[in-house]
Amino acid sequence: MRRTGIASTALFAVLLLTFLGYWMGKATTSAKAEAPEQSSSAAAATSSNSSLMPVAPPGTAIYSAKRGESIPIIARHHLSKTSYLTSVELAAAIRSANNKGSANSVKAGDAIIIPGILDTPIVEKPVPVRSDFEVRALYLTGVMAGSDHGLRIIRRWRELGGNAVVFDIKDSDGILNIPFEHPLAVQKRRPVIPDLPKFVHFLHAQNMHAIARIAIFRDEHLVLTHPELAVQSRRTGQPWKENGKLVWTDPSQPKVQEFDIALAKSVAQSGADEVQFDYVRFPAEGDQKDASFVYQKEHPAWHRTDVITDFLKKAYAEVHAQGVLLSLDVFGVMAWQRSVDLSHTGQDIPNMARYCDVLSPMIYPSHFFGMDGYAHPGDAPEHFIGESMERFHLITKDTGVVLRPWLQAFAWRTKTYSPKYIQVQVEASNKKGGIGFLFWNANNNYAKPYEAMPAMRAAKLIRGDEVAGSTPTPVSGGVKLVSAPAR
């Protein structure tokens, strides 16, 4: 019995092991069979995920958003790599390209399409026009020109028939609005026009003449950072101040002249069509007897007028070689050629006119204090514009220079400022030989010139010259576009 029991037990064990072996082998075979399917599914999933990753269309880039970022932050980061001028415009384009509506939020890892990507930096060339091209321009500060508001002003002016903009490269505070590599160029802030060729390209795309304004010898930043370049005081041996303000470089200082000419050439090489010099003069106020200048030792027989003329002769040759126009802003009162004005400013108009293409007298009626017996000159625009232009025409008639005046587009010291005030100035200038006009408003508020443009066109006060290559565009009231021949 004992042996039979053992045999039975052994038989049962064999059968159990055989059964377990069978099922383990089946399970292993099943697992092996399933493994390729699982591998295929994983590959398919990976392939599917890869196909969902966006491919950047031409002219765009894909950026993976980081934690804490937003569309405005991403726009500021990428602005220099795109064709857009402001981060606000780029942010709007990013929202549109990514179907974001008005939302600015993004999640970490989001694939963001950046539109307007440039393959290479923009290189812009001047668009030549004749010196007697009828410029219809308004003035923008550098800060305004580099802003979204400034771009709106430019587009609005173009729609109304304007064809040019004067914008600051360097105002009398001396702060540079563009990047400029030079030993004397100490940047105080990030340039508000960080890419001048791109900005000029925008103006050219609007068929507009680009006029780059540079304040020359009144340069507060330069004399503060380099006091050795300032006008010097005879009494103290320290930098001279005009009515308590340290703002004037020495116009006869060779380093100052070289700096300004180098800046003008750089601007021309960035595509500007015209370089405009302002403050091309000596200081006219303050203690004149205490002011000491380099030329008084280097050229003792010279007068201030000789210094200004000599500088312009050099600058004109350098700037003209770049294929652009050179224009000069001068005091309106200089048309009267009073000896006191000549001796202080050094602005000998007939000589200056020989070394520029365009002369732009600043003939704002409100600035003719006590002139010609008018108690309120600001309310006599027809007289002072007409009288000034006639005098300027008389003293420059043999030079071939074009007269293009700065006109008053602000309400200071006048009770009659209006669209009609604007029109009266343009009409008075035209009658006395003025070609084109420049509107000045320090705050860049041009509501009255905007209103005046349709009436001036209707009165045929605008000749209608346009930059070569322009094509007629729909403008309220209609503007006849006439391409100017190449210089």
Structure description:
This protein has 487 residues and is an alpha/beta fold. It has 2 domains: 54 residues, Membrane-bound Lytic Murein Transglycosylase D, Chain A (Roll), CATH 3.10.350; 348 residues, TIM Barrel, CATH 3.20.20.80. It is 39% helix and 13% strand. Strands 11-10-9-7-5-4-3-13-12 form a 9-stranded parallel β-sheet. Strand 10, helix 13 and strand 11 form a beta-alpha-beta unit. Helix 8 runs parallel beside helix 10 and helix 14 packs across helix 15.
Short structural description:
By secondary structure, the protein is of the alpha/beta class.
How does the SSE layout of this entry go?
Layout: H1 2-52, E1 61-64, H2 71-78, H3 87-97, E2 111-114, E3 136-140, H4 142-145, H5 148-159, E4 164-170, H6 196-205, E5 209-215, H7 220-225, E6 232-233, H8 254-269, E7 274-278, E8 291-292, H9 295-298, H10 304-320, E9 325-331, H11 339-345, H12 349-353, E10 358-362, H13 381-396, E11 402-403, E12 406-408, H14 419-431, E13 437-440, H15 447-458, E14 465-466, E15 482-483
Task: Predict the CATH topology of the largest domain.
Answer: TIM Barrel
What is the number of helices? 15
Largest sheet: 9 strands, parallel
Binned, the helix content reads 25-40%
Secondary-structure content class: alpha/beta
Mean pLDDT across all amino acids: 88
Name the helix and strand elements from N-terminus to C-terminus, one letter apiece.
HEHHEEHHEHEHEHEEHHEHHEHEEHEHEE
Q: Which term fits the overall shape?
A: globular
Radius of gyration in whole Å, from Cα? 35 Å
Approximately how much beta-strand content do the residues carry? 5-15%
Distance between the termini: 130 Å
* CATH architectural category of the largest domain: Alpha-Beta Barrel
**Quick one: CATH class of the largest domain?**
Alpha Beta
Number of strands: 15
* CATH H level, superfamily name of the largest domain: Glycosidases
